[in-house]
TrEMBL record:
It is found in: Cytoplasm. The lineage of its organism: Bacteria, Pseudomonadati, Pseudomonadota, Alphaproteobacteria, Rhodobacterales. This is Phosphoenolpyruvate carboxykinase (ATP). Involved in the gluconeogenesis. Catalyzes the conversion of oxaloacetate (OAA) to phosphoenolpyruvate (PEP) through direct phosphoryl transfer between the nucleoside triphosphate and OAA. Belongs to the phosphoenolpyruvate carboxykinase (ATP) family. GO terms for biological process: gluconeogenesis. Transmembrane segments: none annotated. Mn(2+) binds at residues 200, 219, 258. One of its GO terms (cellular component) is cytosol.
Length: 532
């Protein structure tokens, strides 16, 4: 394997990182796959995928994420949401990590975060694991050979899972650390093999940098009508609410599944690939995503498989329920080549309400949209222990608090002004439970959600008749062609309407308790849209 194309002025030693054994720059997907196999990091699966496991960490570690607190960021970081690290601790962490890396083999990938050339960020991701190199190469945007020859990283991420941080020496919490330093333009990741940390680090960087340029960074997926990027839809939502599932829609062009920016020019994906959940993935309900599990170099993380037949088990969550596959955008048949869209015509806010209270779709006024954006509600189903059936509410502002370095109002005000200038229509979509709460009811059929979205996006739904929801104040359509009308009024799907009312009142109370902290910062119309 050759060393690969790299800007000769910008090797790691020019960045002051010396003494490493060997560094492979910008290896291809096939080379990284082969290197991962040679190093015993994984197994080649059916269709040429790469099967890996991540040990102890099978999800992100938000409590181990730090921002270096220095004068230059003191006034702009939202410190209540971002744990601070002293510059001196970071310096020791960096020195210790580089000392740990001496003599080892590493993979450096020079990539763009951002499909819009005017707004992209040049990031170098240095990984200890070859498969992390492959993952981030799939997930971000790949420069061509000419761009590589002059590539100068604006930020460098070093991800070294075998390095264990020391809370006393490094000012962190455990031996896992994700430390972001805006002055030194470095992110150090240690003690975790979960690949999602790589992509969400870049997202966090862009969430910090872009608002200063008037660009709204969004934890959302996006797609547009065939041949018509002016008809763009974005889908906000926390993890598991359906961003990836619903944006991959055979009747629309996929722009991206997780992170986008909204500039004066329209929307752009930050990424060049997708990271989909594979638990219970079905070939019937999600054929495009299912197919990527059998394509060359797709990274399959934490799935149980038969070691002899290599058959994947989509039901077995014994390693984690957060099992995933990572693949380049072009593995989805109708993905956009440019990953650019227009100004969103429709803004969907996805939530997975396991209380079974919220309707499957509701139209939001701009003030209500701001309320739901700041609230960032979804719910997780309770643990798998027997008898525990009460869902867990989650309120994560901007639909992504762990990735937001700035205060929520910064993102809220940007979104608000863009909605106002471009006249986007906003919707709340519940992909969670119907017919009762988790334990009694069942998850909304994907087919039903898709039918509602199709009607919202083709403009027919907005012309229909709406009722005002007594609990939440938003407007809910009364009938949608081809859909059982009872679904639209969750109260009628419960066996016991009084139980529904009690559960709805409880959820309203949760929204209201959570929102109290935003009241001092928001405008009167959003206050008026508040629930409870
Ligand atoms: N009605 C529904 N709409 C959307 N997804 C559904 C629905 N019912 C079940 N699901 C399942 O819920 C999950 C949604 O996960 P998805 O990967 O789309 O989430 P996401 O918002 O992209 O999360 P993340 O940000 O963590 O990647 C999938 O496993 C999907 O099969
Ligand atoms: O970042 C991850 O690990 C997966 C993801 O998309 C999210 O949690 O929003
Ligand atoms: Mn996703």
């Amino acid at each position: 394997m050759d060393q690969g194309t790299v800007n000769p002025q910008m090797k790691l030693e020019h960045q002051g990182i010396t003494g490493l054994g060997y560094v492979y720059y910008n290896s291809s997907a096939a080379q990284l796959h082969d290197a991962a196999i040679a190093a015993g990091e994984g197994v080649t699966g059916k269709g040429g995928s790469l099967l890996v496991t991540t040990g102890k960490h099978t999800g992100r570690s938000p409590k181990d994420k730090f921002v270096v607190r220095s004068a230059s960021v003191e006034d702009t970081i939202w410190w209540d949401n971002n744990a601070p690290m002293d510059p001196a601790h970071f310096d020791v962490l960096y020195a210790d990590m580089v000392a740990h890396m001496q003599g080892g083999t590493y993979y450096a990938q020079d990539l763009f975060g951002g499909a819009d050339p005017a707004h992209r960020l040049d990031v170098r991701v240095v990984t200890e694991l070859a498969w992390h190199g492959l993952f981030i190469r799939h997930l971000l945007r790949r420069p061509d050979a000419t761009e590589l020859a002059s590539f100068t990283p604006a930020f460098t991420i070093i991800n070294c899972p075998t390095f264990k941080a020391d809370p006393v020496r490094h000012g962190c919490r455990t031996d896992t650390v994700i430390a972001m330093n805006f002055d030194r333009k470095l992110i150090l990741i240690g003690g975790t093999e979960y690949a999602g940390e790589n992509k969400k680090s870049v997202f966090t960087l862009l969430n910090y940098l872009l608002p200063e340029k008037g660009i709204m960074p969004m934890h959302c997926s996006a797609n547009h009508a065939p041949g018509n990027p002016v008809d763009t839809a974005v889908f906000f939502g926390l993890s598991g609410t359906g961003k990836t599932t619903l944006s991959a829609d055979p009747s629309r062009v996929l722009i991206g599944d997780d992170e986008h920016g909204w500039s004066d020019r329209g929307t752009f994906n930050f990424e060049g690939g997708c990271y989909a959940k594979t638990i219970n993935l079905s070939a019937e309900a999600e054929p495009d995503i299912y197919a990527t599990c059998f394509m060359p170099h797709t990274v399959i993380e934490n799935m149980v498989f038969d070691p002899e037949t290599l058959e994947l088990d989509f039901e077995d969550d014994s390693l984690t329920a957060n099992m995933r596959c990572a693949y380049p955008l072009n593995y989805i048949a109708n993905a956009s080549d440019t990953a650019l869209g227009g100004h969103p015509k429709n803004i969907i806010m996805l939530t997975c309400d396991a209380f079974g209270v919220l309707p499957p779709i509701a139209r939001l006024t701009p003030a209500q949209a701001m309320y739901h954006f700041l609230s960032g509600f979804t719910s997780k189903v309770a643990g798998t222990e027997r008898g525990v059936t009460e869902p867990e509410p989650t309120f994560s502002t901007c639909f992504g608090a762990p990735f937001m370095p700035r205060r929520p109002e910064v993102y809220g005000n940007l979104l608000r002004s863009k909605i106002a200038s471009h006249g986007a229509t906003c919707w709340l979509v519940n992909t969670g439970w119907t017919g009762g709460a988790y334990g009694t009811g069942s998850r909304m059929p994907i087919k039903a959600t898709r039918a509602l979205l199709a009607a919202a996006l083709d403009g027919t739904l907005i012309e229909s008749t709406f009722r005002k929801d007594p609990h939440f104040g938003f407007e809910v359509p009364v009938a949608v062609e081809g859909l059982d009308a009872r679904l639209l009024d969750p109260r009628t799907t419960w066996a016991d309407a009084a139980a529904y009312d009690a559960q709805a009142a409880k959820l309203v109370g949760m929204f209201s308790d959570n929102f109290a902290k935003y009241v001092p910062f928001i405008d009167d119309d959003v206050k008026a849209a508040a629930i409870g």
